[in-house]
Amino acid sequence: MMRLLLLVLSLSLFIPAPPAWSGEPINLKPGPDGELSELGVAITALRLTAEGHMIDFRFRVLDAEKAKPLFTKKNKFYLVDDKTGKALKVPVPAKLGPMRPSTKNPPQVGVVYWIFFGNTGLIRSGSKVTVALGDYRVQGLTIE
To answer: Where is the signal peptide (predicted)?
Structure first.
């Protein structure tokens, strides 16, 4: 299973630059408790996982209505290394589909959801990153 995951990750993790956004990006900075009030969520974790091959981004829904944009297929998610500008995308294994919240069910208040980003060693613990969630850019984040 791990070999399959590594194969999927190695196929195409990097994008030369973040894609063209649908409009002017909306820059956000999380509050002291990780809250992103504009999106109705609070960041609970941003850490390396799967022996450094993935980045685990977790958030708790505080307002289901505001969080709906995170649960639509049209919104793409990227993690951008602030140092190099390289963007990492969400892996899409054939049998599992995108490694992000399901778009089939509406968000529920109090539930912690996750998004995985592929990593080939570019991002390490302590790296400064920006997470792009659709048209929103969450800046000033540090990998645990």
So the answer is: 1-22
Distance of alpha carbon 4 from alpha carbon 143, whole angstroms? 25
pLDDT digits (tens, 9 = 90+) for 29-56: 888 788 888 899 999 999 999 999 999 9
Contact 106, 68 (CB under 8 A): yes
Query: Which residue in 59, 70, 68, 48 sits closest to 117, CA to CA?
Result: 48
Decide if pLDDT at 141 tops 90. yes
Q: Which domain holds residue 135?
A: 11-142
Mapped onto helix, strand or coil, the DSSP state of residue 59 is: strand
- Reported pTM: 0.79
CA 72, CA 81: separation in Å to the nearest integer? 24
- Running DSSP on this structure, what letter comes out for residue 21? P
SS3 74: coil
Rounded Cα gap, residues 9 and 57, in angstroms: 17
Residue 5 lies in a domain: no
The mean-pLDDT minimum among 15-19, 77-81, 108-112 falls in: 15-19
Total domains present in the chain: 1
